Amino acid sequence: MFAGASPAFALIRIKRGDPMPSNEAFLNALNQDRALLSMPAVNGRTELETAGPYAIMVDGADLDEYVVWER
Fold first, then answer.
1. pTM
2. Which residue of 16, 23, 45, 69 is 20 to 30 Å from 52, comparing CA positions?
């Protein structure tokens, strides 16, 4: 992360009971967040924090939600 920047943050939703997303999936989600916010790419290793799964329902679908952010 670069000085003075906010860390990227993303939500990943999967069908309830499916396996936890991989670190690669979490990194892809963060990179998509960075691109949407016009943030520069990370130069170096990214440390991740994850939380979840949180059981949610969206449009009648039972999902597990994970939160991932950069430290």
1. 0.81
2. 45
Chain centroid to CA 65 = 10
Q: Both tokens of residue 39? A: 């943030």
Strand partners, 65: 13, 54
Q: Report d(CA 12, CA 65) in Å as an integer.
A: 6
- β 9-15/48-58 pair status: unpaired
Query: What is the tens place of the pLDDT at every residue in 4-32?
Result: 556 788 999 999 999 999 999 999 999 89
- Distance from C-alpha of 48 to C-alpha of 41, rounded to nearest angstrom: 15
* pLDDT at residue 50 tops 90: yes
* Runs of H (alpha helix) within 1-71: 23-36
